Structures are given as structure tokens and as C-alpha cells.
Amino acid sequence: MIRLQNVSKQYSNGKAVDDISFFIKEGETLVLLGTSGCGKTTTLRMINRLTEPTQGDITINGQNIKTQSPELLRRGIGYVLQHHGLFPHYTVAENISIVPNLLKWTKEKTTSRVNELLEKLELPLKVANLYPAQLSGGQQQRVGLARALAANAPVLLMDEPLGALDPVTRASIRKEFNTLDELKRKTILMVTHDVQEAFELGDRICLMNEGKIVQIGTATELLFKPSNDFVSTFFKEQRFQLELESIQLKDIWQLLPKTIEGTDEKVLSPETTLWEAIDTISQATGLGAERFVTTVNNQNKQVETGSLMAAYTAYKNSFTA
Amino acid sequence: MNEQQQSLWSFIQQQSDKLLQQTAAHIGLTFISLLLSIIIGIPLGIWISRKKQWSGTVLGIAGVLQTIPSIALLGFMIPLLGIGVKPAIVALMLYAFLPIIRNTFTGINQVNAAVTDAAKGMGMTSNQILFKVELPLAMPVILAGIRTATVINVGVATLAAYIAAGGLGEFIFGGIALNNTNMILAGAIPAALLAIFFDFLLARVQQLNIRNARISLIIFPIILIVLSSFYLLPATIKGKMLAGFTPEFMGRSDGYLGLKDKYKLNIRTVVISDAIMYKAAFENQLDVISGYSTDGRLKAYDLVVLNDDKTIFPPYYAAPIVRQDALIKYPELEPALNLLSGRIKDSVMTDLNYRVDHLKESPEKVAKEFLMRQNLYKKPRNGNKGIVRLGSKIFGEQYILLQMYSMLINGNTDLQVETKTGLGGTKICFDALNNNQIDMYPEYTGTGLLVILQPKNNIVQEIIGNKEKVYEYVQKEFINQYKIKWLKPIGFNNAYALMMRKKQADELHIRTISDLKMFIDNN
């Protein structure tokens, strides 16, 4: 859907982006991850032409973005900013209606869309007539997202969408993002410096450094098949948690011990991450003896902390071997 | 003199028509210039917020404009735009520029970058960003600039009275010239109240919340235009003839008040400074002006003095006044000085003044040529009998007279002359004479009476209409009080006078002030 080919951006003080190429499939979420100044925001801003590349081509749906006027291009791309960028002199409803109004939607259509989004983002209807300054930080960020989604743009650019929030609010909004059906259908490019966020929200992660792509791939690829030392050092601090979070039960199913038949087991979905599984089991064992199983191809395997950890180690070793 | 004793309140009541008219003109002047300044300043501020490389230049120029003293700025405007409303509006507009341009620039720059970035990122055009985002968000800062500009304009607009643009300055400067506190306050208090009131009003507009602010964006320009139109109100009182009088003349009983009182003259007037009045008459911007009857500009601009047939203007006959002890010590001095008596008529003095003031010839040359024509010039005798000290006030006519007296003394006596020119005004000159710093200077009978002697009102009224009586009175009193002698008058009368363009006066057959009144009443 979005393709960058040998894109560079040269500033007077050096190259902010240096010969970058990648492709984002329709419906995929790609996260640009990296430290400040690595060129990730510049890369994102070149896609809606807030920054013009010095070299290279960018296409959306096979069409070069230069063939369209920047304004028309941008109206077809949702844009979420770190500091939400809501208009302080517009009400929430007016803020959400900006792009529909630019596209000359009817009043009725816009109003019903605004109400629909408020509902989906779990914002009370009464906030529609409030000004951004009257909302909490989390609410402001949700309104910022609603505004980007309003005109049903198929592509969404998110620049540190949760960067300005406190960790608790971040975590809860991240969960909401993950469950929001509107986001699932969209092709998303997101910029973040938060590793946790990248792993949670990204289908694939593109790790950048000094204007270049260091590695692009899924979370497990980055963790278990790092292309160089930079990649492995980058995740060092949170490696254990990240690994447990990125591995799902179905990934290690083969490595779990043989099935033991039994009754009254609790069933965990094969998409459950190790982190979640261990969390669930440890909480349950506190209450009493419970058995957990997971089912792949109609075949049950028992899930317990000890066997999970053994499987995890074996899984990890399979990459280094 | 009576005016000074009455209370401020009764002055205001008495002059309420004029006060209202001046206030309306003042408001109109303030806001029409403000409106123009906004119309030009805000786009300019927007432009430099887009082209930052120009911001230094534009703000620099606006800043320099503001540092020019207001009266000088008004003065610069006259050669370009003449007198009256136009130069005043332009000058005030230039004054209002700095706060408006700077605040527009700052206001737009301080809009949160994330907001403009979002606006751009959502696909708003740069015009949409300007009108829907930047200007509304910059509005409080821009309004603060407009507020500053308003207060500045209310203040500076008082100076507009100097160039016949009206406003409360007419009272203020008239009051200063006449030393009439009530008149000053009658102009100054409303001006101050206007400043406070508009400042308060704009402060309220600034504090409006966002919703109401949008409404105010529509209402504010309307109010501004309505206030600007105040200026048109006084202009609706039309007349065929327009008179320009100095602030001092406007308030004097031997000036405009006397014209109304004794002649029942009912002419449309504007207040204007002496410095530009003659030229304005010449350029057809004024029809009648108040001037001095021997002023050289009378000739330079081809003006004619209207005969004061009801004698409201006191006589100002020039004559040398000399310390009596000097006359006794040097008996030959008096006959030498009296050689000039009766020799210079009004028109002759006007011509001499014209040559000095306008043609920039030296007083010495003009004096010498005149004496030669009159066969009064004699070669200096270079005697050394003693020294006579001659003084003069600080204007051309006095310099010329001084040179003549100096030549007459040198040519007819063995005395030596020491001149002290440029002794400021009447007070300095007279004090120098009275304190034996100088021995003589040329003085005017009216000045001797009204400025130096200041007798009781009934005495003034009794003698003021008669030039002989005034001369006799000052001669007697100066000897008695100061031992200073008035010698014989030189002949000319440098008094207040009404003047018109010669051509116009001839066409309309106006010779006297009564003729002028008849003409105005019949049209």
C-alpha cells in the first residue's frame, strides 16, 4: 500500500534520512522505532508531504504522492500528533469535523460520524461541546485519534501518538487502540521511541538509527534474529519481558510436554502470549489448583509455568543453533 | 480675564457645543486612523510572519516612525498632504503601525506549532490555516496591539489641532496659549477619559471567551467604522468660507470672540498653528486667517489685510523705548532715534519683513538699503563718546529695526553701538531694559499695555479702541513706573488682523471685516 524507494532527506547540517526503502501492506501496522533524531519523524512527515524528500519516490496504492496536491493528499491520510494538535478554539465536535468539512460532507453525515467516533472511543457524548482544554490528557489524545479517523482515510500516520501521556493512561489507551475495529482495517505507519508500545501495536517494527534502517521485521525476528549488535543492545533492558510478550502459545506448542487428559481445565487461546499465560496461571494458583490447557488442531496440551519456561528456553535456543 | 475666574463646570456648559464637536472629531480622528492602520498593519504583520527575513526591516521602520516626535511627524505630512484631516490621519496611522504590526507578527508566531502542524497535516490550505487557525488564535495578542494603538492615538490626536484637523487639542492648545486653565482642562479631561474608556472597552473585548470572541470579530469592525464616521459629523456644518485661526486667537476677546461679539461674524473655523497658516491660505485650503499685519508672509503669499472697521484689534504701534537715564546722559540719542518716526508704513514693513523672512536677505542689508532710499543713511562717524546698548526680540522685524537704529546712531552721533539681539520674548527684553542691561529696544503699544502694564479691565476697555489714547497711556505709565521713555512711533501697526487672498478679496469686493460678514450672511 505504502512504498518508499531509496528515500533521503538532506538538511544543511547533514542527512536526516539516508536511503530508506520499505513497504507497508494494506491493513498492516508498521512501527518506526528509534532514539530521538534517528529520522523516524522525518520519514513519517515525508509521506504526507509535510517534508519533501530530497531523493527517492513514495507511492501510495501505486500512485506517486507528488502527482497530487499536498492538501488533497493530506485529506486522504489520517494524521495523529504527539501533542494532539487539537484546535484550542474549536469544540471537540468541531475538531473532529475538520477534515469532513474540508471534504464538504453534509452536516448530517458529519454529525453522525462524530457521534459514532465518540462512542467507539468511549468518550461521553457531552464532551462534544467542550473545548480541548477542558479534557484530560487521555481524552484529548482520543479526540486527536477521532479527528484522524473522521474522514475514513485508509492510511493513518501516527507521530508518537501517546508520547505526551503518563504510563498508566498510555497502557489503557494502547489496549483500546488494539481492540478498535477501525484501526484494524487501516494501513498504519506509527513513530515511537517506546519499545513496549512498538511491540504491542506493531505488526512489524522498523528499527532506525542515524537516518538508516537497521532492521525491519516482526517482534520475534528483531528479538531472536537481530541483524547486528545495535539491535540486540537496543532491546537489552526489557529483553525478558519483551520476549515473553512476543511469543504466543502456538509458537511453542510443539515444545510443550505431551497431553494429559483431564477434566475441568481452563482453555487458553493459542494467541495468548507467554507473559499473559504466566500471569493468568500464577493468579489462579493462588486461589486453588486449576489446570490450564491450550488447543491447537483439536489437540490439547497442558499449560503450566514450569513447562512454559522450559519450552521458552528451547524455543530461544533454536534460533542461536 | 473673566474666563479664568469662572469655574471649569460653567466653562464646559458654556462651550458644550464646541466640546461635543471637538470630542466627536477627536473620536473620529482616532478611529479612522486606527481603522486604516489595522487595514494596512494586520496584512503587513501577516506578511512578515510568512517572510521572516523581512520582519526586521518592517518592524524597524515602524519603530523608527514611532520615535519621530508627533509634532514633527505632523509637520512632515504638510508638504505632502497639506493641512487638515488628511495629514493628521496619515500621521496617526503611522503612529499606530508599530503596535499593530508587531502584535500581529508576535500573535501569529506564538500559535502552538503543533496546532498549525496539525492543520497543515489535515490538508488545510495556507489561507484556511491563516483565517481559521492562526488569526483566531492570535486575536488576543492582536487586540492588545490595537488597544495600545488606540490609547496612543487618543493622545497624539490632540496634536492634530495644530494642523487644522480639529479635536480636543483645540481647547488644550488654546488654553495653553491663553494661560486659561479651564480651557486646558476642558480639552485634557475628556481626552484622558476617552483614553481610559476605550482602553477599558478593548480590555473587555480581549477577555471575551472563545465563543463570544467569534461574534466580536464581526461586531468589532462595525463599531470601528461607526466610530470612524464620527469624523464626518462636524464636517456636515458646511459654509462657503473657511477660516483658520491660531489656538490663541480662538480664545481671545480681541480675537475670535470679539469677531463673534462685535461683528457677529459667523464663519466656519478650524484651529491651526501659526507656522503653516499663511501657506494654507495661499494654497486655497483656508479663506480667512488670523495673522500679524506686518508679517512678511503676507506679501510672500499675496494676502491682504481686511480693514478692522469696528476696531476690535488693539493697536500695536512700534516705537523705540529707551531708558531715561541714557537719554539724559546722551542728549543726541533721542533726535537720532526719532529720525525713523513716521517713516515706515504697514506695507513697507511687510515688504522689509518679506525680504528678510522669505527671501533670506540679511537684516543689515535690508536696513541699509531702506535708509539709503530714505536719505537717512550716513557714513559711521566712529566716535568714542560712549556706548549705547541696543536689544531686540527674537524675530526678523526686530532685527531690521535694530540694524536701522544702529546705523542711525553711528551716522548721526559719536556714540558707539553694542547690540544684543535675540532676547527671546517680551518679558526677557523688558527685564533686560528695566535692569539696565540694555538701553533701548523696539516695543509695540499693545504689548506695553496688555503684557507689561496690565491695567484694570475698565481702563483697557476705555482706551483700547483708540491708538492715540493707548500710546499716551503707555508713555505716561512707563515714565512713572519704570523711568523708560516711549519715543515717537515708527508708523506701522503690527497688530492682529484678518487676512484673505488678495485675488479672492478683490473678486468678492471684501475690504473690511464687515464686508466679510455681509458676504457670509448673504451666501
TrEMBL record, chain A:
Coiled-coil boundaries: none
The organism's taxonomic lineage, starting at the top: Bacteria, Pseudomonadati, Bacteroidota, Chitinophagia, Chitinophagales
This protein's UniProt keywords: ATP-binding, Nucleotide-binding, Transport
ABC transporter domain span: 2-235
Family affiliation: Belongs to the ABC transporter superfamily.
InterPro entries, per database record: AAA+_ATPase, ABC_transporter-like_ATP-bd, ABC_transporter-like_CS, P-loop_NTPase
Gene Ontology MF terms in the entry: ATP binding; ATP hydrolysis activity
Record's signal peptide: none
PANTHER family per UniProt: OSMOPROTECTANT IMPORT ATP-BINDING PROTEIN OSMV (PTHR43117:SF4)
GO-annotated biological processes: quaternary ammonium group transport
Protein name per the record: ABC transporter domain-containing protein
Automatic annotation (TrEMBL), chain B:
Keyword vocabulary terms for this entry: Membrane, Transmembrane, Transmembrane helix, Transport
Segments traversing the membrane: 24-46, 58-78, 84-101, 137-163, 183-203, 215-233
Gene Ontology terms, MF aspect: transmembrane transporter activity
Signal peptide region: none
Pfam families: BPD_transp_1 (PF00528), OpuAC (PF04069)
Keyword Transmembrane: yes
Keyword Transmembrane helix: yes
Alphabetized InterPro entries for the sequence: ABC_Gly_betaine_transp_sub-bd, ABC_transp_perm/SBD, MetI-like, MetI-like_sf
Location within or outside the cell: Cell membrane
GO annotation terms (biological process): glycine betaine transport
Membrane topology: Multi-pass membrane protein
Stated name of the protein: ABC transmembrane type-1 domain-containing protein
The organism of origin for this protein: Segetibacter aerophilus
Lineage: Bacteria, Pseudomonadati, Bacteroidota, Chitinophagia, Chitinophagales
